[in-house]
Amino acid sequence: MKPLLALLMAGATSTFAAGAVADVAASPACGADALGTSRTLTLKREAAAWGTAQHAPLPGLAPGEVVLTFDDGPRPESTPLVLKALAEQCVKATFFMNGEPMSRHAELARAVRDAGHSVGMHGYRHDNFSEMPAAAQLADLDAMRAAYTAALGREPAAYRFPFLAESPALLAALKARGLTVMSVDAGAEDWLPDQTPQMLADKLLGQLAKTGGGIILLHDAQDQTARALPFLLQTLKAKGYKAVHLRWD
User: Fold this and answer.
1) What is the rounded (10 degree) CA torsion for 185, 188, 190, 195?
2) Of 13, 16, 46, 157, which has the most beta carbons under 10 Å away?
3) Residue 196 phi/psi, 5° resolution?
4) What is the DSSP letter of 6?
5) Hey, what domains does the chain have and what are their CATH numbers?
6) Which is nearest to 159 in space by CA: 137, 144, 139, 176?
7) Is 135 within 8 Å of 7 (Cβ atoms)?
8) Residue ranges of the NodB homology domain (predicted)?
9) Within a 13 Å sphere around the CA of 26, how many CA atoms are in the beta-carbon half?
10) C-beta neighbour count of 238 within 10 angstroms
11) What is the pLDDT along the chain (249 residues), one digit of tens a residue?
């Protein structure tokens, strides 16, 4: 459940003032009918914060551009289906993984990375930090980072708070470590049960109509999301949205 969310080409390289974002042309799309990845934005490894649910808009995104992000994995029952749907539509995404499943399913975490997707952190156990003492929050961050580096062999660059429940203690710790905080701009409330692909698409399009694009929140740990993703990607294509891949330098 994400309660805060309800508040809611070619060839050139350029740099944007707020956040120093590099814009790099993407690989050719896999076909005219695929959503594809229109381009890649490479963000600095820095203590920035993006996503209009809580922060400034991601710099460098044009109207109609979306960044696909997935939370709560990796999960063997659903993450491979999400990877398959993304591959079929030639879309690159960003996965914010929890430390516990990342440790249990390190091979799947590496498969996400090896498919060309970006990987960030999402808390070790998906706790609500507003209900925890500061020391426990910091211990969770240390465990999350250890799980990430053990699975992927490099330092993380970005973090999304579970439940989008940002806390002063963790915000300060992330800033001190030069980690980017990623919030969201739009989503489908796909953690709610018993939703059809059309219901999810309608919710997502309704939020995108308000924001004009931006960072999309979905969950690869949800079976209904994994099943609906081909339809969601086709719907984004039909409505003229363009997918942008985020990376960190």
Assistant:
1) 170
2) 157
3) -80, 165
4) G
5) 3-248 (3.20.20.370)
6) 144
7) no
8) 64-244
9) 21
10) 11
11) 344 333 332 222 232 233 434 443 344 457 889 999 999 999 999 999 999 999 999 999 999 999 999 999 999 999 999 999 999 999 999 999 999 999 999 999 999 999 999 999 999 999 999 889 999 999 999 999 999 999 999 999 999 999 999 999 999 999 999 999 999 999 999 999 999 999 999 999 999 999 999 999 999 999 999 999 999 999 999 999 999 999 998
Q: What residues contact residue 159 under an 8 Å CB cut-off, 6+ apart?
A: 96, 120, 121, 122, 141, 174, 179, 180, 181, 182
Q: Are 88 and 33 in contact (CB under 8 A)?
A: no
Amino acid (1-letter code) at residue 79 = T
